[in-house]
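pipeline/complex-builder :: batch 7 item 3
reading input block
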Amino acid sequence: MKEKLNQIREEALAAISAENADLEQIRIKYLGKKGELTAVLRGMGALSAEERPIIGQIANEVRTEIENSLSSATQALKEKELQKKLIEEKIDVTMPAADIKVGKLHPLTQIQRRIEEIFIGMGFSIAEGPEVELDYYNFQALNIPENHPARDTQDTFYITENILLRSQTSPVQVRTMEKQKPPIRIISPGRVYRSDAVDATHSPLFHQVEGLVVDKGITMGDLKGMLETFAKTLFGDETRLRFRPHHFPFTEPSAEVDVSCFVCGGKGCRVCKNEGWIEILGAGMVHPFVLSNCGIDPEVYSGFAFGVGIERVAMTKYGIDDMRLLYENDMRFLEQF
Ligand code: DAH
């Protein structure tokens, strides 16, 4: 019987350590109810009283050995499976991700932000004003008298006699000067409205950036220098400026300002319509009446102001020949910027 037990032990241990061993099957074969070891134990009744405890002990040892061997083999198998899983299911975090489609800013927004950046860089801050405005701020305080043609209902959307959609960003000058004492250095970007029919260069809604500087001893030279820095930063270092005398009721003297065409450098081309120059803004020295309307003493302070058309700048910079393209939201157009 001893030999039989030793044989069972050797066979079982060998089976367990064999490659791809079916451990459950081995457990049933040796330790199960109808297993080989169980069969030996059942036969113990036939043994003598001296032999029984000796064989019993050996049988227990064999059982424990097989059990331990099975459980460490099971453990090892689990470990191996885990390792395999870890290797197989590894995620390669260096693999390039699928493209995320991000949109981009509308060309007008891009230009507006660029203009803001340039002026913020020169120490300006940004002021805002309402689009639904009082006649007083849009016209009266800006030295535009009752019968001035700019008030014509053909140009301005009136809501009531005194309330309108602002036709320019200039009212923000007045609102700023009423609230803030000099030194003042602001720009104010935003929408403006005019009762114009839509065509290649007109839209009832468009955008301007107003600028205003008020302090002691501000001169036309300061205006020129600042606008030159602005134009060179936006259109390139070779850009030149041309000031043409003009009339605005709220500035004296006033000028319309052209930039040399950045495409042909002033020789004349399609973009500048053979002029060599492109008009982008109006400017001037703030009229003394406007200063005193806002409670600022024109004997002590002076200032300059300007108004830039954002569409004008965008069309100039990108060579866009029809303003309507900016509002139609055709992706094939917008994707180019
Ligand atoms: N508000 C004027 C316009 O819409 C533009 C303008 C011209 C603004 C001269 C100014 C300025 O501040 O000084 O045509």
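note: The radius of gyration is 45 Å.
queue -> next item
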